[in-house]
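User: Here's a chain of 489 residues. Predict its fold as C-alpha cells.
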Amino acid sequence: MSDIRQDDASLSSKRESTNSSTWSKRDERRLFSKINYIVLPYVILSMFLQQADKLSLNFASILGIYADTGITHSEFGMLGSALYIAQLTVELPVVYLLQAFPVSKILGGSLVIWAIFMCTAAFAKNYSQLLVYRIFMGLSEAPIYPAVFLLIKTQYRRSEQSLCLGIAYASLSLGSFFAGLLSYGIGHATHVGTFSGWQWCFLFWGLFTLCTSILMLIFVPDTPYSRWFRLSPIEKRIIDDRVCDNAVVQNKEIHWNHILEALKEPRYYCHVLISLFCSIPNGCIVVFGSQIVHNMGYAALESILLTGASGVVHAFVSIVFFYFLYKTPCRNYIAYTSMAFATITSLFGMLLLAFIAADEPSVLRLFGFYLAMTITFNIGNQTLISNNVSGSTKMNFYSTSIMMANTAGHFIGPLLMFEREAPQYTSATAGCILVEFVCIILFFYIGWSLGKARSRKLLLLTNGGTQHREGVPTEDLTDVEDKNFIYKQ
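Assistant: Prediction complete.
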C-alpha cells in the first residue's frame, strides 16, 4: 500500500513540474482568489437563503401561525413534510434541466419562483392555503441544491471542493442563526401594522430572496471560461488544467450508460442511504426545532433565540470538519474522517437528547440539540461524491439521487414527531440514533471500497497500462471509463 501511495505522489509531482514551466503557483493562487470572489458569494447566498426561508416555518410556530390559521400540531408537521414530498416528485427531471440549461438560469430562476411563493404564503388564512403554497415552494426548490453542487464541481479542483462544500454547509448554519435573530426581533414587535410576526418573517425573507435571485440570473458564471472571470491567456491555460483535474465535460446529451453504470455500483446505494438516513434528524429539527427547545422549559422568544444560536455551533463544526478535510492528512481519508466526526457530534448529541429528561431546562440537553444536526454526514457524503464521480450524466444522476433521498428523509422526519410523545419524542429520537449508527457503518464500507478501487487504478498507471492525460478532456467519460481517474477515499 505504501508503494502505491509513493507512485501516486510521483505522478502528482510529475504533473506539477510540467505545469510549473507554463505558469507559477502564484498565478494559480491569483486565479483561485478570482474564482472565490465571483463564485463563492452566490454559493453562500443560495444556501443561506434556503435555510433561512425553510426555518421561517419553524419560527412561525412560536410567532402566532397556530392561532392565526387554526392549524393543529399534526397539520403543522404535514406543512413541513409537504415541501419535501413536492420536491421529491420533480427531482428526476432536474437531471435533464441541469444538462439542458445554464446553471445560472436554473439557480436564479428557481429562487425567483421560490421567493414569490414565500411572499404570497404570508397571506394564507388556513391550512389548505398554506399547504398549497408549501407544495409550490417545494417544486421550485428542487433544482437549487443540485445546481449549487454542480457549480462547485465545475469551478473547483477536486482537492478544493471539500473547502467549498464546507463553506456551503456553514452558510446553511448562518442562515439558521440570522433567521433566528430576525424572528426574535420580530417577536418583540407584535402585530406591526395588520400582520403577525410569522407573516413579517415570510415577507422579509421572500423579498430578500427575490432581489438576490435576480442578480444570480445575470451574474452566476455558467462555465469555468465565463466572461465574468476576464481570464488572461495564462489563466485560460490554468483553467484547462483545472478542467482536466475535475474530469468534467459539460454537454447537453444524456448518456444512459452513465446512469446504468451508477446503478451497478454498491457505493451509489450507500451514498443514497446515507443521504436518506441523515436527513431524518434534520427534518425533525428544521420543522420542530423551536418547539423542542420551548418544551425544555424555555420561554417562547428565548426558544427562538436559542434555536437560531444553534447555527453558530453548526457553522463551527462545519469549519473544523472541512479544515481537517482540506489542510490535514485526513483529506486522504474522507470517509473515515466523516465517520469519526459524525460519531463525535451527531450521534453523541442524539444520545444526550435520548437519555436526559425533558421536563426542565438543561444545558446538556440543549447542547445535545445543537449537536444533533447531521452536518458532518452531509459534508462527508457530498465531498466523497464530488471527488470520486465523473461523467456529466453520472454526476447529475448521483447528485439528483442524493437530493431525492435527502428530500425523502426531510419528509419522514417531521412525521415521527408524535404530539402524544412530547416533549421527549421517544420514537423520533430512537429512530434517529438507529439511522445515524447505520450511516457510520456505510461510511466505513465506502472508504474500504474506494481504497480497493484506488489501488487498482494506481497499479494500472504505474504498470504502464495507460498514459497520463494532458490538456482539456474532450470525451465525457465516467470515473470507471477514464483510466487516469484516481479515487480518493
